[in-house]
Amino acid sequence: MNREPVSRELFDEVMVPNYAPGNIIPVRGEGSRVWDQDGREFVDLQGGIAVTSLGHCHPGLVGVLQEQAEKIWHLSNVMTNEPALRLAKTLCDQTFADRVFFANSGAEANEAAFKLARRYAWEHYGPDKHEIISFTNSFHGRTLFTVSVGGQAKYLEGFEPAPGGIHHAEFNNLDSVKALISKEKTCAIVVEPIQGEGGVMPADPDFLKGLRQLCDDHNALLVFDEVQSGVGRTGHLYAYEMYNVVPDILTSAKGLGGGFPVAAMLATANAAKSLGVGTHGSTYGGNALACAVAQKVIDTVSQPEILKGVKARSDKLRKGMMDIGERYGIFSEVRGAGLLLGCVLTEKWQGKAKDFLNAGLDEGVMVLMAGANVIRLAPSLIIPETDIDDALERFEAAVKKLTA
After folding, report:
1. For pyridoxal 5'-phosphate, which residues are the binding ones (predicted)?
2. Is 226 part of any known ligand binding site?
3. Residue 227 marked as a ligand binder
């Protein structure tokens, strides 16, 4: 079948203008390498924004997808299916959780989590206990509810009025939470263990421990948004293990499907009871294709040698970026955990993250931003060390040109 040639210009003709994609159009990927329409090769340190956790076209994922595609794709939740049940059992076995709800995106998983938190408080304590405490610079998705819980006003501008009963404390400042929390009104505290969009900012261990205690003292649920930090990204299956703080509800997406859209809300049995029959749902949530792929991702990523490998790759990538930062005076620090790293631009280069991203593309390496002042790296968890070397070499060439 002949198809019209596709160019970047076509985007501006046919797509809603809410994105500003780069000029290249990748057409093929393998492992941590990507090729565009002209055959130019790139080393991928973006990972689809922490999504392609096992790289592009991972043979195991391709095999499982093909196998399931020949059995059954979709049933809706009028019936259950084997892949969904197997995946839910695996997630419960490997985490604190007793119950799972499947969705299609991080925003939907968070929407479910926030609704569950309110419903739980409504059932146990009455309608006044509905307030949610979140944090400035947090990001929880783009639905109206999740963008309101998120702590970045720019994403809410023009979409008000926002849902009420949401307060924002200061991340890593326990006193600011104490000033807002109340036993009568607060139903949940929602936090990213590592703020992703907010600049790859890790939580202090004592801060998360303090949030757990505050929730216990005020009959509130603790919700961890691990959409970006989960599924092996930090070298632990989920980041809560790294902090030794157990939430009541956890949300997972991005890396969970390795590129296939799937998300999950994990919860304790006590909390989950409040979403009884008919209280919440999703047509595609728990789709057999998605769950079959996610099962393979979890089975692969949860292997001890894979998680150990994340830490080794993290050390190599972090050291390489710090060395480049020192040589050219561009980074004040490299923060984060595992393969979710944020390279913070020095005062001289503040606001220029996009310039570094574009310069990297010119040299054949794909990096991300987390705000205008942070270069974010979220590559495949199994990126070969030779690809890391190559990426660092290419990024340094980009930096050299940009800083000349």
Report:
1. 106-107, 139, 225-228, 283
2. yes
3. yes
